[in-house]
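Case study 2.
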Amino acid sequence: MTEYQELFDKIGCTIEETLLEQALCRTAYARENAIPLSRTMDYLAVLGDAVIEISVIQSIIDAGITDKGDITRQKIDKVNMSVLRKSAEDIDLPSLVHWGKGELGMHIWTSGRVSAECFEALMGAVYLDSGLDTARKVLNRLGLI
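Prediction:
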């Protein structure tokens, strides 16, 4: 059993371990441990943000809402820093992230933006590993769509 089995159980899918490790690697940790910055969560967070947005927008449209303003308002309500932070906390994601020493000292994961970014990176990894359908299933399982 992998050390990430509890996370996999919570999100309802597995992620290839090297990709997951990258999704959990903060830039500060990488710098302190001579890990190439290309192996950090940064680009996965950008990708995950897009995956979350497209999934949420599609679910809004699937619900029959087609007015641009209504779609935008609902998307903002469903995808914001507070919602993503709560999702990260619900699956205990901060305990799995590789934090830099300064980040650990400041308990930086208590910042909504930081925890939200970690959740976005996780969703980027889900997408790369298993595709958009699986990412949507994870978001549905976690109550975001």
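The chain has a mean pLDDT of 95.
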